[in-house]
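Lab intake sheet, docking and co-folding queue.

SAMPLE TYPE: protein with bound small molecule
LIGAND NAME: pyridoxal-5'-phosphate
LIGAND FORMAT: SMILES
REQUESTED OUTPUT: full 3D complex as structure tokens
PRIORITY: normal
SUBMITTED BY: R.K., bench team

The fields below were copied directly from the construct record.
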Amino acid sequence: MTDRTRLRALADAYGTPLYVYDLDRLDAARRDLFGWLPDEFDVFYALKANPHTDLVQALREGDGPGCRAEISSTGELAAALQAGHDPADILYTGPGKTAGELREAIGQGVRLFSAESLTDLERIGEAALAHDTVADCLLRVNDETARAATGVRMTGRPTQFGFDSETIAGLAPRLRAVPGTSLAGLHLFTQSNASDEAALIAEFRHTIDTAARVERELGVPLRLLDIGGGFASPYGQHGERTAYPALRAALETALDTHFPRWRQGAPRLAVESGRYLVGDCGTLLASVGNVKTGRGRTFVVLDAGINTFGGLSGLGRILPVSVRIDSDADAGQTQRVTLAGPLCTPGDTLGRDVEVPVGLGPGDLVAIPNTGAYGPTASLLMFLGRPAPAEAVVRADDVVSVSRIEHVRTYRKVEREHD
Ligand SMILES: Cc1ncc(COP(=O)(O)O)c(C=O)c1O
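RESULT FIELD (auto-filled):
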């Protein structure tokens, strides 16, 4: 079956809007990412990119090395556990971890946390002590200098993330003494979506250099160094994942310089990735509901808008999306249109000046490529009360699962004084 007929058959069977995730493509992305890295590296899959259990499970299993899980909430913890992750393989991160969620995570067996501040570290320690255990903590470091020229920067400027690198030396005695915690290493995540290999390498070199300095200042040998990520994949646009053929050698050289025992696991090394692993396995299928003109501009109104795809402009989304039209209108003459979603807000625009066939009309199918990352769960899913899109997981021509996120309001009993 061609890709086009397969997608058309899935849309006919399950309706639109429909996300289709292809596990063969996901396997290829996982193999490629491990291939760009020295063999000693672990890869944490950032569930924020797509917490769908089937995808998380496929990234864990597969041929060759599997991914560990990086999570930032108890919802993601549930997804990771459902996907079969051993809690010992999970890294819990995030700047706003609450006492309640830390207790829950530790109760479920998670032992590795990224600590974003002294308060965060103390809170992790209290939760660990409540379970009579000790939590391994990576200090998240916000490096004072910015390197990367591409992608979305997370550090090098004031942010809510991590310890400012220049403060660590002064804090070291207190950081080493927090009950219930053991300083296990460092976590630096400086940028997202770096499509320039040279820039990513420069960033990682700088990260490794910083980590070696911070290790000296802390006075504690690093057991795990998570150098972050930034591996790029197109988002809602045509294109390929970035290749990083020079990365492995560059990392080996930088690590040999700063951590001569890294090949013996001192420290263990890791990266984190979301979009690179799942981005290109996804295609969003939407149907044209209406084509209309307004003051000389043509609007194609789809059944998928920013409620289905589009919550995360802050993570490097670049409008417009590009689309492949699966339509009897054929690709002869084309026109430029605005692609709108179904919501009652002018903000519900997926693209302006998008080229589509002139005869495009109601019922035609539109495919938006590279939508496996930051799809449903990063969108305004509940706005205007439309159902979430269906999500079909496939492997070649086999449908593995079809599901939909449901949101339900649950009432709590309210105690009133006169009751
Ligand atoms: C700490 C952390 N890890 C991993 C990721 C995943 O980023 P990406 O999907 O670009 O790989 C993010 C994204 O914001 C992040 O903040």
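REVIEWER NOTE: Residues 197-218 form the longest helix (22 residues).
SIGN-OFF: pending second check by T.M.
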